[in-house]
Amino acid sequence: MCVVLTVGYVLLLRLTSAVVSPNDGEAALVELDGKVVGAANVGQAFTDSVYFWGRPSAVEYNGGGSGGSNKGTNNPEYLSEVESRIESFMAAHPYLSKGDVPSELVTASGSGLDPDISVRGAEVQIRRVAASRGMSEDAVRKIV
Question: Which residue has the higher pLDDT, 107 or 41?
Answer without folding.
Answer: 107
